[in-house]
Design brief:
The chain is an alpha+beta fold and 132 residues long. The protein has a domain at 63-128. Helices cover 34% and strands 21% of the residues. The chain is built from 6 helices and 5 strands; from the N terminus they run H-H-H-H-E-E-E-E-E-H-H. The chain has helices at 2-16, 32-35, 44-52, 56-61, 116-119, 122-128, and strands at residues 64-71, 74-81, 87-90, 95-98, 103-106. The protein has a 5-stranded antiparallel beta sheet, with no helix packed on it. The longest helix has 15 residues, at 2-16.
């Protein structure tokens, strides 16, 4: 019985690992004309990320970024100035942000459990990669 099971699993694995002809991923590499001179300074892999997201020049035209994150406790709103990196994180229970020199926390009921210095821009960096 063990030998049959082994042979069955081996044959299943060999069938599942065969390369299917005609199926290839998107291998389009953006040209310099499509990207721009500044993007050409970056590694090819990063150039492809820029291209897939509208290009570096499109990103640089934006001044502010805002997004909402639904959580169990409610919606968390993030607003970021892309040039100065000043930011505000707002929930119904607390607000925190960065004013250009200091990180601040407004939490009269002490609902926030964590380090605002660490969290105030954490989700922004996850969201905005690779552009920041």
């Amino acid at each position: 019985m063990k030998i049959r099971t082994f042979i069955f699993l081996l044959s299943l694995t060999s069938i599942g690992c065969k390369e299917v002809p005609g199926e290839t991923g998107n291998t389009h590499s953006p040209t310099e004309k499509e990207m721009g001179a500044e993007e050409a300074l970056y590694p090819v892999e990063l150039q492809q990320v820029f291209y897939a997201h509208g290009g570096l020049s499109t990103w640089k035209q934006q001044r502010k970024l805002s997004f909402d994150m639904p959580k169990k406790s409610g919606v968390e709103s993030h607003m970021i100035d892309l040039y100065t990196r000043k930011d505000i994180v707002e929930t119904e229970a607390y607000k925190m942000g960065y004013d250009g020199s200091d990180v601040w926390l407004l939490d009269p009921n002490e609902n926030y459990n964590g380090d605002p210095v660490f969290y105030h821009n954490l989700m922004f960096y996850f969201y905005a990669m690779p552009f920041v």
